[in-house]
Every structure is written in structure tokens, then in C-alpha cells.
């Protein structure tokens, strides 16, 4: 709020009217004021907290990447999207809407949490505005919410055991984001042509039908990397829980900036004669076990963060065998 006397007199008057008008609902009405006075840029970022588990710490890096993939962060000429997103988070912290639970060694925020009442506010306003819907017993295929969040407990309820089938056909064409766990049922995303964010954790990704059609994906978190990965031309963030074999087609994705896997290796079709300068800024965890791996890593000239496993590389210098560690001096 502006630091002017008249502005704060209005705030005081509003609070008084809410507090004394309705004792039973005054707390939520007061919290509504906090949301009402947020800037246009901050409102979607705040409502997005409803897509996380109640009373669970939220990793800030994951939160920021989701904000960016969703398109909530405004571009700035001299700042990265990540820096602008961090400023948004600091504003929410400054308004006491978000609580820091853990800090990094440099003082930055590592994990945060939101109060239960504020999360309830997020879910209610998000549902009213068709912004986000928590899928529960009352979920209907006629809902028009752009983002769907399905907590793990949701799939175990018998009345909605086949919840994934509710997302079929014309009823899911409006969905932009799907976050959750459908561990027992196959999910058909064939009709979700406009999906930007798919955060899907399932050990049996073979039940994910139609994923090759999601050409608008910006953020994909999945257990096993799909064979159709080359078709995701707009993909910026890729998180794979299992192991990944990096093919040349993956490195050719023009917008891919983040690649994280439990363990990644370069495919056989990647070789030093096929130089592929890529846009990767974050790579984890890549194996550098031979000279070919080292050459392929040098194609990632934009790296800002690297997590890798490596072995001493075997060198043949005019018949003399020797070992050396990978040369990472190109990482400027």
C-alpha cells in the first residue's frame, strides 16, 4: 500500500467494518483484503500456492520454475525471469502471505510454506475465477478450470478411482496445467492440446496416452522420458525421475534450458562430428565417463549449474596410456 495517511485510514476503516460486521467469518474477510490489494502480477502467483500440499514445505526453485512455465512472470530487459520471479516471492514474503521455513547458505529462500487459512483462500478464489481446481469427490467434468491439481490421496477414493477418465474428450480441452498423482489409472491427454505444464509422477508412464500431441508443453516432470520428446518444441523444463539417455534430438530443442534426471548419459547418436550447441543452463546428473562425453558436454556453453559424475579419462598419447580428469574450463 502507498505510505499515505488517507490510504491507511481506508485500511483501518475496512478492517473495522469486517471485524465487527460478522464475527464468524471476519478472519477470512480480512485475508480477502490482502488478496484484493495484491498487484495484477502477484495475484496468480499467490493463487498458485493452492496447488501444493497442505502443511508441506514448498521448494522455492520448483515454485519459480512453475511460475515461469505458467507465464506468470513478466519479462524484463536487464533481468532473467528467475530474478524477476524471486522479486515476486520477496514481495509476497514482505506482505506476510508466505513464510520462510529454510534458507540457503547465501541467505536466499530455499523452502517456504503458506498458512492453512491462506491456502483455503487460494483454493476458494482460484475455483471462483476458474484459475485452479483441487480434484476431490465433488469434481465434475463440466468444470472449466484451467489448472487441475490432484493430490495423491485423490486416486485412492473409490467413487473417483477412474478419475483420469473424467479428463477425456471435449471436457479437457480448456486445461492448461495438470499437477498430481494418478498412480493406478491410465491418463489420456490426447484432447489436452493446450497443456503447458504436466507434473505427472507415475512409475508406469506407458499409461500416459497421447503425450506426443502436447506440442505446447513448457514444463514436464515425469518418471520415464517419453520417446516423443523431440516433438515438444516449446519445452523449457524437463525433470525425469528415472534414468535418461540424451539423444541428439533432445539437444536440438531450441527452448530447453533445464534438464534434470536421476542419471543421464549421452546416446550413441551423439558424437564429436555432430556439434550441437544447445541452450541448456542447468544439467543434472550427467555422466562423463569417456572422451566423447567430454566433447558433447562442451556443446553446452550456456551452463550455469552442472551436476555430474565422472571418471578419469583414458588418453593415448603416441602409444602412451595415461589418465586425466575431464576439462571443464570452458564453463565460463
Automatic annotation (TrEMBL):
One of its GO terms (cellular component) is cytoplasm. GO terms for molecular function: ATP binding. InterPro entries: Disease_R_plants, LRR_dom_sf, WH-like_DNA-bd_sf, WHD_DRP. It is found in: Cytoplasm. The keyword Transport does not apply. Keywords: ATP-binding, Cytoplasm, Hypersensitive response, Leucine-rich repeat, Nucleotide-binding, Plant defense, Repeat. Its main location: cytoplasm. Residues 52-122 form the Disease resistance protein winged helix domain. GO terms for biological process: plant-type hypersensitive response. Confers resistance to late blight (Phytophthora infestans) races carrying the avirulence gene Avr1. Resistance proteins guard the plant against pathogens that contain an appropriate avirulence protein via an indirect interaction with this avirulence protein. That triggers a defense system including the hypersensitive response, which restricts the pathogen growth. Belongs to the disease resistance NB-LRR family. PANTHER family: AAA+ ATPASE DOMAIN-CONTAINING PROTEIN (PTHR23155:SF1152), DISEASE RESISTANCE PROTEIN RP (PTHR23155). This is Disease resistance protein winged helix domain-containing protein. It comes from Buddleja alternifolia.
Amino acid at each position: 500500500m502507498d505510505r499515505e495517511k488517507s490510504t491507511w485510514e481506508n485500511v483501518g476503516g475496512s478492517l473495522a467494518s469486517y471485524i465487527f460486521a460478522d464475527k464468524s467469518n471476519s478472519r477470512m474477510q480480512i485475508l480477502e483484503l490482502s488478496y484484493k490489494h495484491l498487484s495484477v502480477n502477484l495475484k496468480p502467483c499467490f493463487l498458485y500456492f493452492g496447488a501444493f500440499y497442505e502443511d508441506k514445505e514448498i521448494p522455492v526453485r520448483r515454485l519459480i520454475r512453475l511460475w515461469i512455465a505458467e507465464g506468470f512472470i513478466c519479462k524484463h530487459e536487464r533481468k532473467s525471469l528467475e530474478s524477476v520471479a524471486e522479486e515476486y516471492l520477496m514481495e509476497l514474503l514482505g506482505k506476510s502471505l508466505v513464510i520462510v521455513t529454510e534458507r540457503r547458505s547465501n541467505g536466499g529462500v530455499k523452502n517456504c510454506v503458506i498458512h492453512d487459512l491462506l491456502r483455503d483462500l487460494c483454493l476458494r478464489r482460484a475455483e471462483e475465477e476458474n484459475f485452479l481446481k483441487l480434484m476431490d469427490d465433488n469434481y465434475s467434468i463440466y468444470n472449466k478450470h484451467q489448472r487441475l491439481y490432484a493430490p495423491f490421496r485423490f486416486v485412492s477414493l473409490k467413487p473417483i478411482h477412474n478419475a483420469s477418465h473424467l479428463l477425456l474428450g471435449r471436457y479437457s480441452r480448456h486445461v492448461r496445467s495438470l499437477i498430481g498423482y494418478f498412480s493406478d489409472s491410465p491418463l489420456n491427454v490426447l484432447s489436452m492440446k493446450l497443456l503447458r505444464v504436466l507434473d505427472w509422477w507415475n512409475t508406469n508412464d506407458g499409461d500416459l496416452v497421447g503425450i506426443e500431441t502436447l506440442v505446447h508443453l513448457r514444463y514436464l516432470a515425469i518418471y520415464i522420458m517419453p520417446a516423443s520428446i523431440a516433438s515438444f518444441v516449446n519445452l523449457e523444463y524437463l525433470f525425469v525421475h528415472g534414468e535418461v539417455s540424451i539423444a541428439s534430438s533432445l539437444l536440438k530443442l531450441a527452448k530447453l534450458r533445464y534438464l534434470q534426471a536421476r542419471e543421464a548419459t549421452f546416446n550413441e547418436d551423439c558424437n564429436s562430428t555432430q556439434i550441437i550447441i544447445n541452450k541448456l543452463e542447468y544439467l543434472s546428473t550427467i555422466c562423463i565417463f569417456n572422451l566423447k562425453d567430454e566433447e558433447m558436454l562442451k556443446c553446452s556453453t550456456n551452463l550455469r549449474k552442472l551436476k555430474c559424475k565422472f571418471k578419469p579419462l583414458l588418453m593415448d598419447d603416441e602409444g602412451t596410456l595415461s589418465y586425466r580428469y575431464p576439462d571443464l574450463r570452458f564453463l565460463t
